[in-house]
Amino acid sequence: MRRGDGAPGALAGGDPEDGGVLKEGFLVKRGHIVHNWKARWFVLRQNTLLYYKLEGGRKVTPPKGQILLDGCTITCPCLEYENRPLLIKLKTRTSTEYFLEACSREDRDAWAFEITGAIHAGQPGKVQQLHIQRNSFKLPPHISLHRIVDKMHDSATGIRPSPNVEQGSTYKKTFIGSSLVDWLISNNFAANRLEAVTLASVLLEENFLKPVGARSTEAVRSGDLAEQFLDDSTALYTFAESHKQKISLREDINLSTMELSGTVIKQGYLAKQGHKRKNWKVRRFVLRKDPAFLHYYDPAKEENRPVGGFSLRGSLVSALEDNGVPTGVKGNVQGNLFKVITKEDTHYYIQASSKAERAEWIEAIKKLT
């Protein structure tokens, strides 16, 4: 969330240092001593990236820590953790490394762009160059496609195909489009996402890769060369020599896989009240349609499996009052709250980081109920 997109009242309220905020929102940070992962509220200023602990839906002041951006270097995408593909790595002037995980590729790239701009804030030429890079394309000369493909097959540092689901069918030995784009950039075969997409399209055109499933196949049929490859987390591809192996939905896919087979409509970090202890924790929420489900994930865990979720068919969603603590909410949690009541009459209490974000989630969920 950029400042001006709707400052998160329950999270940003009461901070005397609110001025000069460039961007703020949830990121998941790796610990320094114990390498566990915890959600923190990050606030980006021109020279510093602050992060806060959350208690009861509010950020705890003073900040838990800060990252000094002067002399800092940024790596994005960072592929050092196989199960965390949406990482940014910051390395300070004193060689301290910070690993930060976003909830989506778009969110990660937005954070990386703003942080990079803050690092080079005293160098107007660098900032202008960033904007030019965002909107320009140059394919690197003398690319050896065979060398790229050989490295893609490397067992240690290459692309690792795995089973993926699209529209209810499982495809073995596949990878998603956005992962390949990240890999091409990380291995210096491309300087930006546009260049990586075009390079991946060339690999398709030269039959090193094959599309798998409806989305990627349709793009190859209808798009120009630079548009044939999809930088998307739902578009599937495979190496040409290991084409798709389709598995019957009825035979091999359990109910949870059916729930997860829908198209992702929206995702982001939200705070949720627990059902038993009634404590509040940050979760990564993913909204899907066909079938309509809302799942939530624990960002501290390595495996990409939801810790909970529910069908939206027959559900009710509504905003809760911002003045005082609403009925059903435990603790002194107030502001930007909304409630989802399932068909089975289970109540979920959720907190967004701004009124605008809450309205967006409510509108998106209502369309699927």
From TrEMBL:
Database matches in SUPFAM superfamilies: PH domain-like, Winged helix' DNA-binding domain
Domain DEP: 155-241
Occurrences of domain PH (ranges): 20-120, 263-369
InterPro entries the record matches: DEP_dom, PH-like_dom_sf, PH_domain, Pleckstrin, PLEK2_DEP, WH-like_DNA-bd_sf, WH_DNA-bd_sf
Record keywords, A-Z: Acetylation, Phosphoprotein, Repeat
PROSITE patterns reported for this sequence: DEP, PH_DOMAIN
UniProt-listed SMART domains: DEP (SM00049), PH (SM00233)
Protein name: Pleckstrin-2
